[in-house]
Design goal:
mainly alpha
């Protein structure tokens, strides 16, 4: 029996593919469309809350979580459809997603990096939390308090929201569209800082949470710039949120 052969022609940190094949303006406008729809969608979809509570009478948490899934997926898909429609050549939604996803090789390397980078990123965010707490009150994310007081079913929904949906959607929009567009316009450094700031600014808990979330956004943008793979960022974001929620559960 012959031993398995390994292809060593392509090292782990080999040159990466081009950063993005999508034009800049559609990426910026696509991100803007996502933000507008995400902000306004609750007004449009709020009548669904009583319906969802009637169909799944667990609690308001259940209805709100399901409404969140509808809103973020709807907003993200519309944004990506816009990006596809505005390309100079016919482009499908799948092609836009694959371009945003970036390097799809070395899945195990990207998965491992996403998990392994949690510790240094956590240390940086913890330092930012400490610094911010000297100036502002640190208010926990509303979902953390809701998670702590929820039953097991609703805790599962909140975990799905925070650990699966939020990382995938936010990384697609903030790193896949916003960061890459700003990088092509202003350069890597400015894009990392600005996209990280926007990422922090749209989250609750400001001003206390601004510096920690900005630090997290900067770290995620730096990782995406380094690996050009959204998989690493998604896994890192998932790991960060999962550990945060698990820690809240055992408090």
């Amino acid at each position: 029996m012959t031993p398995p052969e390994f292809d060593l022609s392509e090292p782990v940190f080999s040159p990466l593919p081009p950063a993005s094949t999508l034009t800049v303006r559609p990426r910026l406008f696509g991100f803007a469309i996502y933000m507008v729809l995400f902000s306004l969608s609750p007004v449009v979809f709020i009548p669904l809350v009583p319906v969802l509570r009637y169909l799944l009478p667990k609690s308001l948490t259940t209805a709100n979580a399901l409404l969140y899934y509808i809103v973020v997926v709807f907003s993200c898909v519309i944004a990506l459809i816009y990006v596809a429609a505005k390309q100079p050549t016919p482009t499908t939604l799948r092609e836009v997603w694959l371009s945003v996803l970036g390097d799809r090789k070395k899945h195990w390397v990207n998965l491992s990096l996403g998990i392994g980078l949690y510790v240094p990123v956590f240390v940086c965010v913890a330092i930012a939390v400490f610094a911010s707490s000297r100036l502002f009150e640190i208010v926990p994310h509303p979902a953390l308090k809701e998670f702590h007081n929820a039953n097991r079913f609703n805790q599962g929904l909140l975990l799905l929201q925070a650990v699966v949906f939020a990382p995938i959607i936010e990384e697609t929009m903030f790193r896949g569209l916003l960061f890459t567009a700003l990088r092509d316009l202003w350069g890597k450094g400015a894009a990392i800082l600005v996209s990280g700031f926007v990422f922090a600014a749209v989250h609750p808990g400001l001003p206390g949470a601004l510096l920690p979330l900005w630090t997290l956004g900067i770290a995620l943008a730096m990782v995406y710039s380094w690996r050009r793979s959204l998989v690493v960022c998604i896994v890192l974001h998932m790991t960060f949120n999962a550990v945060t929620f698990i820690a809240q559960f055992y408090q």
